[in-house]
Prior knowledge:
A two-stranded antiparallel ribbon has the order 1-2. The radius of gyration is 20 Å and the shape is globular. Strand 1 and strand 2 (145-146) form a beta hairpin. Helix 1 packs parallel to helix 7 (190-214) and helix 1 (10-34) packs antiparallel against helix 8. It has helices at residues 10-34, 41-53, 57-84, 87-109, 118-138, 153-173, 190-214, 220-243, and strands at 141-142, 145-146. It is mainly α.
Amino acid sequence: MATASGVSATPRKRLVLLLAGAAGCLDAVGYLMLGLFTANMTGNTILLGLSVGRQAWPDALRDVLAIAAFVAGAGAGTLVVSSLRRLDQCLGLEAVVLVAAVAVWLVYGAPRGRIVEPAIAHWLVALLAAAMGIQSAAVRRVGEQRVATTYVTGTLTTVATDAAGDLLARWNRRGGRAGRPPAKPAPRGTALSVGLWVVYLFGALVGGFAEQRWSLWAVVAPIAVLGGVMAADAAHRSKEAEIQ
């Protein structure tokens, strides 16, 4: 997601925010329907430990499947981005995986209502987690700032450390620490980090609302967002080419 010289990073930041909203929506839908997170592997690691500790082997299998699918998706996304260097291609792969998840549910799950049978649930877990792995690998940087669109623990850490660093720099500039030269504040991406957290939360709210009413059809919203991001990225890449 690095930007070419002379092209503002603002359009890419907007795309990253949209992807964070889509991820929040998917994580909410996955948790409500399947009982685990599709993007938050920290949470799934905890769930795996709990499942093993309780000797709940079916749940442990589900948790392992989610983690393995996420890792496989991240690997596949890395290969696509590294070989093609096209964000839209990687997000296209993610969209195909999500469409496959909706198709599996529509054929095998929807006729049985909201309760998903274990065999079908395993397919949905694998597909949704793989999609989040792909997205995690696709978008890792905007300009010089590292970002994550599928989890927010690191994002909140960045907000806290940047805020503390800014306060310390201001204190030093006012002579609060005698004998030390004033420190120049480092470039910050605090606004983007806060925006990612807010949009991720909003996506989760939308996902919870939509899943309660339309079950896995709620995944159509993130698929639509991916389509819009792919089109916008293609347009932005054309503009970069004209400048170069």
